[in-house]
Design a protein that fits this description.
The chain is mostly beta strands. It contains no helices and 11 strands. Strands 2, 4, 5, 6, 9, 10 and 11 form a 7-stranded mixed β-sheet that branches. It is globular.
Length: 118
């Protein structure tokens, strides 16, 4: 079982920055891919960014150059630094932990609201 707790959401003006944090607890395999997803108003959940244990990163085209995902394996933390925020980035942001090698699992945090005002 893996528990994920997000923090750092809030209200920010367009062009501003925010950093989200995700604290992971439990049995996390080294092959786990950590990620950030979001669900905007009236939209489906979409990928924002992922990071593998070897540091490989993947970003949605809509956030490339503006968002940066990072992780601290020793602390079991994952971060999402967001800059150049736009109103369309308004969403609930979810942290995820997914493992597909060996034992499959997928866990989600409860989400943290990010609101970008124009």
């Amino acid at each position: 079982q893996v528990q994920l707790v997000e923090s750092g959401g809030g209200l920010v003006q367009a062009g501003g920055s925010l950093e989200l944090s995700c604290a992971a607890a439990g049995r996390i395999l080294a092959t786990t891919i950590m990620g950030w997803y979001r669900r905007g108003p009236g939209k489906q959940r979409e990928l924002v960014a992922t990071i593998a244990s070897d540091g490989a990163k993947n970003y949605a085209d809509s956030v490339k150059g503006r968002f940066t995902i990072s992780g601290d394996n020793r602390k079991n933390m994952v971060y999402l630094h967001m800059s150049g925020l736009k109103p369309e980035d308004t969403a609930v942001y979810y942290c995820s932990a997914r493992n597909e090698l060996g034992i499959f699992y997928e866990y989600w945090g409860q989400g943290t609201q990010v609101t970008v005002s124009s």
